[in-house]
């Protein structure tokens, strides 16, 4: 019984990383849009970095979900 409670607590803590994904993506796209509006000629050069940052941020969210599921079901 204590093990089940510990698994649930650990999974909840692991899922906190998914909350940061939404905040991080909002800041990332907002800052890109702000920079692109200030200097439109440089926006094309930074778009690849934006997509890479998006992919890494999403991967961290998916990884935290995977850790939570592993904690619950193993």
- The rough form would be described as elongated
CATH-level-4 superfamily name: F1F0 ATP synthase subunit C
Number of domains: 1
Query: What are the secondary-structure elements, in order, as H or E?
Result: HHH
How would you briefly describe this protein structure?
With 74 residues, this protein is mostly helical. 95% of the residues lie in helices and 0% in strands.
Topology:
Blueprint: H1 2-14, H2 16-38, H3 40-73
Helix pairs in contact: 1-3, 2-3
Keywords: ATP synthesis, Cell membrane, CF(0), Hydrogen ion transport, Ion transport, Lipid-binding, Membrane, Transmembrane, Transmembrane helix, Transport
Subcellular location: Cell membrane; Membrane
Site (Reversibly protonated during proton transport): 58
């Amino acid at each position: 019984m204590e093990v089940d409670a510990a698994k649930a607590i650990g999974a909840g803590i692991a899922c906190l990383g998914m909350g940061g994904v939404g905040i991080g993506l909002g800041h990332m796209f907002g800052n890109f849009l702000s920079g692109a509006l200030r200097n439109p000629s440089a926006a094309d050069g930074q778009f690849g970095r934006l997509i890479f940052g998006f992919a890494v941020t999403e991967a961290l969210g998916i990884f935290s979900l995977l850790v939570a599921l592993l904690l619950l079901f193993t």
